[in-house]
Amino acid sequence: MLAAGAATRFGAPKQRLLLPRVLERLAETGLTARATVMAFEWDTLERLRRLSASVRLTGLLSRRRAEEIGGVRVAVEQLAALRANDLGIERTLLSADAVAAAHAAGLTLGVWTVNEPEEIRQALAAGVDYVTTDRPDLALKLRTER
Q1: How far is the C-alpha of 131 from the C-alpha of 146, rounded, in Å?
Q2: What's the whole-model pTM score?
Q3: Spans of all domains in the chain
Protein backbone atom coordinates (compact mmCIF):
# COMPACT_ATOMS: atom_id res chain seq x y z
CA MET A 1 0.00 0.00 0.00
CA LEU A 2 1.18 3.49 -0.81
CA ALA A 3 0.08 6.24 1.58
CA ALA A 4 -0.20 9.79 0.29
CA GLY A 5 -0.93 12.74 2.54
CA ALA A 6 -3.18 15.45 1.13
CA ALA A 7 -1.70 18.76 2.22
CA THR A 8 -4.40 21.35 2.62
CA ARG A 9 -2.53 24.27 4.09
CA PHE A 10 -2.81 25.94 0.69
CA GLY A 11 -6.47 26.83 1.19
CA ALA A 12 -9.54 26.05 -0.84
CA PRO A 13 -8.63 27.78 -4.14
CA LYS A 14 -5.31 25.97 -4.53
CA GLN A 15 -6.81 22.79 -3.12
CA ARG A 16 -9.37 22.77 -5.94
CA LEU A 17 -6.42 22.55 -8.32
CA LEU A 18 -4.25 20.23 -6.24
CA LEU A 19 -6.70 17.44 -5.41
CA PRO A 20 -7.69 16.58 -8.98
CA ARG A 21 -3.98 16.51 -9.86
CA VAL A 22 -3.30 14.05 -7.04
CA LEU A 23 -5.96 11.74 -8.44
CA GLU A 24 -4.67 12.20 -11.99
CA ARG A 25 -1.10 11.34 -10.96
CA LEU A 26 -2.26 8.24 -9.13
CA ALA A 27 -4.14 7.12 -12.24
CA GLU A 28 -1.29 8.00 -14.63
CA THR A 29 1.17 5.94 -12.61
CA GLY A 30 -1.21 3.03 -12.10
CA LEU A 31 -1.16 3.45 -8.34
CA THR A 32 -4.81 4.24 -7.60
CA ALA A 33 -5.60 0.70 -6.45
CA ARG A 34 -2.52 0.58 -4.20
CA ALA A 35 -2.79 4.06 -2.70
CA THR A 36 -4.66 5.57 0.18
CA VAL A 37 -4.94 9.32 0.59
CA MET A 38 -4.74 10.42 4.21
CA ALA A 39 -5.79 13.74 5.68
CA PHE A 40 -6.39 15.33 9.06
CA GLU A 41 -8.81 17.76 7.41
CA TRP A 42 -11.91 15.79 6.59
CA ASP A 43 -13.27 18.42 4.22
CA THR A 44 -10.35 17.33 2.04
CA LEU A 45 -11.64 13.77 2.16
CA GLU A 46 -15.11 14.97 1.28
CA ARG A 47 -13.76 16.84 -1.78
CA LEU A 48 -11.74 13.82 -2.86
CA ARG A 49 -14.75 11.53 -2.53
CA ARG A 50 -16.77 13.86 -4.75
CA LEU A 51 -13.99 13.61 -7.33
CA SER A 52 -13.54 9.85 -7.10
CA ALA A 53 -15.77 7.06 -5.85
CA SER A 54 -12.87 4.60 -5.88
CA VAL A 55 -9.89 6.32 -4.25
CA ARG A 56 -9.13 4.92 -0.80
CA LEU A 57 -9.49 7.58 1.90
CA THR A 58 -8.16 7.64 5.44
CA GLY A 59 -9.25 10.16 8.04
CA LEU A 60 -6.55 10.87 10.59
CA LEU A 61 -7.60 11.64 14.16
CA SER A 62 -5.49 13.26 16.85
CA ARG A 63 -6.40 13.23 20.53
CA ARG A 64 -7.10 16.96 20.43
CA ARG A 65 -9.47 16.62 17.46
CA ALA A 66 -11.20 13.63 19.08
CA GLU A 67 -11.85 15.71 22.19
CA GLU A 68 -13.20 18.58 20.08
CA ILE A 69 -15.73 16.43 18.23
CA GLY A 70 -16.81 14.15 21.06
CA GLY A 71 -14.63 11.06 20.74
CA VAL A 72 -13.66 8.23 18.44
CA ARG A 73 -17.25 6.97 17.97
CA VAL A 74 -18.30 10.37 16.60
CA ALA A 75 -15.29 10.32 14.29
CA VAL A 76 -16.26 6.87 13.04
CA GLU A 77 -19.79 8.08 12.28
CA GLN A 78 -18.47 11.12 10.41
CA LEU A 79 -16.02 9.10 8.33
CA ALA A 80 -18.65 6.50 7.49
CA ALA A 81 -20.92 9.32 6.29
CA LEU A 82 -18.07 10.58 4.08
CA ARG A 83 -17.66 7.04 2.66
CA ALA A 84 -14.05 6.95 3.84
CA ASN A 85 -12.32 3.59 4.06
CA ASP A 86 -10.05 3.93 7.06
CA LEU A 87 -9.56 5.69 10.35
CA GLY A 88 -6.01 6.36 11.53
CA ILE A 89 -5.85 7.27 15.21
CA GLU A 90 -3.17 8.67 17.45
CA ARG A 91 -1.88 5.84 19.65
CA THR A 92 -3.29 7.39 22.82
CA LEU A 93 -6.81 6.87 21.43
CA LEU A 94 -6.47 3.12 21.00
CA SER A 95 -9.06 1.13 22.94
CA ALA A 96 -11.25 -1.92 22.47
CA ASP A 97 -14.17 0.47 21.92
CA ALA A 98 -12.30 2.31 19.14
CA VAL A 99 -11.52 -0.97 17.37
CA ALA A 100 -15.09 -2.23 17.73
CA ALA A 101 -16.64 1.04 16.53
CA ALA A 102 -14.41 1.30 13.47
CA HIS A 103 -14.90 -2.31 12.46
CA ALA A 104 -18.67 -2.18 13.04
CA ALA A 105 -18.82 0.79 10.64
CA GLY A 106 -16.80 -1.08 8.02
CA LEU A 107 -13.67 1.03 8.49
CA THR A 108 -10.20 -0.39 8.79
CA LEU A 109 -8.35 1.00 11.77
CA GLY A 110 -4.75 2.07 12.01
CA VAL A 111 -2.78 3.53 14.87
CA TRP A 112 0.13 5.97 14.69
CA THR A 113 2.97 6.31 15.59
CA VAL A 114 3.98 3.22 17.54
CA ASN A 115 7.70 2.55 17.80
CA GLU A 116 8.30 0.71 21.05
CA PRO A 117 7.96 -3.10 21.06
CA GLU A 118 5.27 -3.09 23.75
CA GLU A 119 3.24 -0.41 21.93
CA ILE A 120 3.36 -2.42 18.72
CA ARG A 121 2.37 -5.63 20.54
CA GLN A 122 -0.55 -3.88 22.23
CA ALA A 123 -1.77 -2.38 18.96
CA LEU A 124 -1.63 -5.73 17.18
CA ALA A 125 -3.32 -7.50 20.10
CA ALA A 126 -6.08 -4.88 20.15
CA GLY A 127 -7.02 -5.82 16.60
CA VAL A 128 -5.88 -2.82 14.57
CA ASP A 129 -5.56 -3.45 10.86
CA TYR A 130 -2.28 -1.59 10.47
CA VAL A 131 0.30 0.36 12.42
CA THR A 132 2.28 3.40 11.39
CA THR A 133 5.78 3.15 12.77
CA ASP A 134 9.31 4.40 12.30
CA ARG A 135 10.35 0.78 12.97
CA PRO A 136 8.81 -1.36 10.19
CA ASP A 137 11.47 -4.02 10.75
CA LEU A 138 10.37 -4.42 14.36
CA ALA A 139 6.66 -4.29 13.53
CA LEU A 140 7.02 -7.03 10.91
CA LYS A 141 9.03 -9.19 13.30
CA LEU A 142 6.45 -8.80 16.09
CA ARG A 143 3.58 -9.46 13.69
CA THR A 144 5.11 -12.77 12.60
CA GLU A 145 5.67 -13.77 16.25
CA ARG A 146 1.94 -13.59 16.96
Answers
A1: 15
A2: 0.88
A3: 1-56, 62-146
Quick check: 139 and 130 in contact, CB under 8 A?
Answer: no
User: 17-67: per-residue pLDDT in tens?
Assistant: 788 998 999 999 999 999 999 999 898 899 999 999 999 999 999 999 999
Strand order in the sheet with 130-131: 2-5, 35-39, 56-61, 86-90, 108-112, 130-131
DSSP 114: -
In angstroms, the CA 4 to CA 22 distance is: 9
| CB-based contact 72:89 (threshold 8 Å) | yes
The CATH classification number of 62-146 equals 3.20.20.190
Out of 5-14, 47-56, 70-79, 126-135, least confident range = 5-14
89 forms beta bridges with 61, 111
Residue-wise DSSP of 40-107: S-HHHHHHHHHH-SSSEEEEEE-HHHHHHHT-HHHHHHHHHHTT--EEEEEGGG--HHHHHHHHHTT-
- Using alpha carbons only, give the angle 63, 64, 69 rounded to the nearest 5 degrees: 95
